[in-house]
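During the no-cost extension, the postdoctoral fellow (Dr. R.K.) reprocessed legacy sequence entries with the updated structure-token encoder. One reprocessed record is reproduced below for audit purposes.
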Amino acid sequence: MTSTQADVIVVGAGLAGLACASDLSRAGKTVRLLEASDAVGGRVRTDRVDGFLLDRGFQVFNTAYPQVKRRFELRGLRLRPFTPGALVHTPQGRRLFTDPTRRPRRTADLLPGRLASGRDLMALGLLSARDMLGPVRALKRGSEHTTETALAAAGISPELVETFLRPFLSGVFLEEELETSSRFFHLVWRSMLRGTLCLPADGMGAVPAQLAETLPPDCLVLDTPAQALTDSGVRTEDGVHWEAPTVVVATGAFMAARLLPGLAIPPTRTVTTYHHVAPESPLGEPTLLLDSGRRFLNTCVQSDVAPTYAPAGSALICTSVLGESGTEREGELRAALGDVYGTDTARWQLLQVDTVHEALPAMTPPWPLSRPTRVAPGRHVCGDHRATGSVQGALASGTRAAREVLTATGPGRTP
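Re-encoded structure tokens follow.
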């Protein structure tokens, strides 16, 4: 039986909690990682339904993130890449906005006048070169505005913003006003230019699963929701008291505030993803599809990216919209998808609808890129709401929590 005593208790086995528990265990601390659900991952989970892999909300894996390079064995994830760029449905037809340095043969839509003016393409090229090639510390320390203000300051016209950048970035930030911190925008843009966006062959749930493999035996305890913090540890809903002098809360923002009364938390974004099944792919390529009319955030045929997401003879189409939604909007969405894919969607089957609350923090300026994790003696908090709304942000916050715990307590015994 797992001991209820430890050096550190980590509450929540999402990416931040897994990173924190892994680092503390490697430093010799006895750690208990308490997770309320039946598997690790938090918001990064994959359901298996009738032979399909359904990620809980549309997510991608970016190979450029520093924490990804540090923590993951990429070959084991069997990554399948997206096309570098995105298709945009416009009143004039589809246009492909791609990185000309990676796909030079598919840059016809970047000719001035088709998707953007020559002036816009030059302005966006200069912004991209600065973000991609410049020192990252300059982006972190630069002046902070909204993303919309930063794009205007870079000389990008409202026409290009409305045709491509707003539809694309709305799916990244889960907001349509481009009010997200410009510092975060520049960091995300840099990571997209320097890395590859992928899906693991076994779904995004393979990412936290690989992290969990780094934990020692008896560290992870599933199906154990935390009820409250006590003076000497954590009481769980089954009435068990888990004792430790140090507790790290690595949950979502609202649960963290419940366990740590008085904790300031940001507003969060909610997203809903519809999973449709079709007898064949309506696109035939691993490319994100956007709508300049903004009837949805984005859509893609995930089985075109990773064929393992669907059984042979079927295609899996995933489409995300802002906020809470349900099957009552599905008819309207299906009509929009028929328009952008140029196909009859009558035979499509709605397999599942996933609404993800607290999908991202609302990162409006001023937004600190990282926050200290210690909130009281022996009490720490981490998660993307304490850093940036991304896989990188969650992992980096968990890493910082482990480092600050070790600074306060010293390393444990070498395992």
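The first helix runs from residue 15 to 26. The chain has a mean pLDDT of 94. The remaining legacy entries will be reprocessed before the final report is submitted.
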